[in-house]
Please model this.
Amino acid sequence: MIRARLYAPLSGGAVKCLACNHFCTITPGHPGLCGVRENRDGQLFSLVYDRVVAAGVDPIEKKPIFHFKPGSLSFSIAAPGCNFKCRFCQNADISQVCDRGADPFSGRLAGKAMTPEAIVAKAVELGCQSISYTYTEPTVFFELVLDTAMLAKEAGLANIFVTNGFMSPKLLQASAAVLDAANVDLKSFSNGFYTRYCNGRLEPVKQTLKAMVDLGLMVEVTTLVIPGLNDDPNELEQMASFIAGELGPSTPWHLSRFHPAYQLTQVGPTPVDTLERACDIALSAGLVHVYTGNVPGARENTCCQACGRTVVKRFGYTVENFLTQTNKCPGCGSPVFGIY
Ligand code: SF4
Model:
């Protein structure tokens, strides 16, 4: 357990956590909404600095990140907890620590100590080109993220956030110097969806996305398309227009297939036709790099936006990258969005 970054003292021993847009006011002896940042005697502590709950090598495509070093390996780590409570969470066993009955006060949170030095050494040893902070929400284990990311930079590794985008502007600023790329969930374009199904809000996520682009980060967006909840064509059109208009038409958008999970088991998997219609909507709105997720062999290739030639060919995590060391299309020489 170490003292948290990004909080402000309040009267009566309370603190305000400044890590995410919940800005929890936390009284002594209590955790914030995420369950893993706790007020002890008027100071905020992270309970998960030494609780790495997942650590392993993934293809970067699994994040999903398609336009940053495609075909490379990313050492992926997580600590328990999340600032959202998505009813459809695919990783609820490690993200929803409060719901699971873990007692945040007792230190019985799952995971094991793995120092930033050990994480970076492992990533280098296993031939990874980046470290991804993923599976849960990097915002809530920010202290471990930042210490690791700084060492990773020194070792020549890139840093990648896979995030719900609900981090505070302060946290994003504090990460900017060491962050290279991010995949941000845009779960819906309805604030009602965010409040009802995620315990979050839409506007801060939009602001984070815009701020990341302004900072020059490589940003990709993912939407899990859930039948009947966020697959309305008008809503998808609004999302596509926001991405194209505010983030740029080259911004990759991953439209992923939903599978029943956690507390949303009464909704069936997304029909592939729905994803195809969503892709058509995205392309009509002006986006050029639109992908389907969780449907191997569907829409996974990266194509040159000038001549249409396939420049990165994918089937699941099998990747053929024709852009190694360059971002120029081998066919027409046009630049392809991304870092290769
Ligand atoms: S990171 Fe956790 S404690 Fe901090 S504001 Fe967000 S939910 Fe609250």
Remarks:
- The chain has a mean pLDDT of 95.
- Residues 301-340 form one domain.
- The first helix runs from residue 92 to 95.
